[in-house]
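Re: that backbone. Tokens:
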């Protein structure tokens, strides 16, 4: 028996075993996507949806009080609730998947610019189907923005009190708010029922996963700000022809306010509030020796865009006519943010962009 050979073989085998054990111990655990999704559901989505639902109910109450007694006090109260409710919606618009997509919330709540001619046809006739395609641009917050802000306070009160179609105008306003309230309640109910578990359990990163749904809608919402809120009205996508009336909330002049609320909420969503978010996911998978995390670059670029929105003069429609360069500068900064999110982030996380656009980012 060759004792030396046996000893050498034993040492070699032991070395292999120790190396294998060491490698296994050094293996990095996979990022806790289920934990991130649970945090998103419990600390962002469901609380924000709950706040929006409560605000929609109060919005309907204020609309009913105004139509019952149109005066300066009830108009001011209704407008205030409109702003609060729209701001709550801005915090939720990036969650346009699952129950929200099934109910068509995003299109029904915030398709702009609104079709004022169709609104007036509906009011004059008193006969309309708010769920029909012909009224797709005559519903939601943009239509309410028109009804509550088109004209002076005295003119609006007259529209809802003494003018020939005042009764029909009252009905149209309350029908709009009622439609939103009734459409949104099933979304919240599904999240409180079974969809929360469905959302957390689908914790892969394939196209049918919750990470994919959330990230796609998240990036799409940032693109909505870049394109619809600022790009199209400022002429960035219309060959230089400016379209000031195409801004969101044109009649109230609150376009920048709602964009600010939305982009601030998007940044909060990216960071998972105070819990696990996409920022943590990025830092978990990127190289440890990276000099500046992509997550930090994204947060910094969010701040640049948010600050520029905050510094734009109101109303945005006037700024487009008097200082379009400031809006164009914001557009370019939003474009940088999109590249970080849509190209760098998705590539790093291995999540595909599944929606189509044709603006070249």
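Recovered sequence:
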């Amino acid at each position: 028996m060759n004792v030396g050979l046996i000893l050498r073989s034993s040492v070699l085998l032991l070395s292999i075993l120790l190396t294998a054990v060491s490698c296994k111990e050094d293996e990095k655990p996979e990022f806790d996507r289920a934990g991130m999704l649970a945090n998103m559901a419990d600390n962002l989505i469901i609380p924000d949806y709950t706040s929006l639902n409560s605000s929609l109910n109060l919005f309907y109450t204020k609309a009913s009080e105004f139509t019952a007694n149109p005066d300066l006090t009830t108009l001011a109260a209704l407008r205030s609730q409109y702003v609060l409710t729209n701001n709550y919606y801005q915090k939720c618009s990036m969650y346009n998947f699952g129950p929200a997509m099934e109910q068509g919330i995003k299109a029904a709540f915030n398709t702009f610019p609104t079709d004022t001619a169709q609104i007036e046809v509906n009011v004059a006739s008193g006969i309309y189907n708010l769920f029909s395609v012909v009224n797709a641009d005559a519903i939601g917050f943009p239509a309410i923005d028109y009804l509550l802000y088109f004209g002076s306070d005295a003119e609006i009160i007259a529209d809802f009190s003494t003018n020939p179609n005042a009764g029909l105008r009252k009905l149209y306003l309350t029908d709009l708010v009622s439609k939103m309230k009734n459409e949104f309640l099933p979304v919240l109910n599904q999240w409180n029922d079974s969809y929360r578990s469905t959302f957390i359990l689908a914790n892969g990163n394939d196209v049918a996963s919750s990470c994919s749904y959330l990230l796609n809608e998240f990036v799409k919402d940032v693109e909505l700000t870049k394109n619809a809120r600022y790009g199209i009205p400022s002429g960035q996508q219309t060959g230089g022809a400016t379209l000031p009336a195409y801004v969101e909330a044109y009649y109230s002049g609150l376009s920048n306010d709602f964009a600010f609320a939305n982009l601030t909420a998007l940044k909060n969503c990216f960071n998972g509030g105070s819990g696990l978010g996409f920022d943590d996911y990025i830092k978990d998978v990127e190289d440890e020796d990276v000099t500046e995390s992509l997550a930090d670059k994204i947060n910094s670029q969010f701040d640049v865009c948010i600050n520029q929105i905050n510094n734009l003069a109101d109303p945005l429609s006037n700024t487009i006519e008097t200082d379009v360069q400031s809006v164009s500068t914001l557009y370019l900064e939003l474009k940088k943010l999109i590249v970080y999110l849509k190209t760098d982030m998705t590539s790093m996380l291995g999540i595909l962009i599944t929606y189509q656009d044709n603006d070249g980012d």
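The CA atoms of residues 250 and 327 lie 16 Å apart. The longest helix spans residues 33-68.
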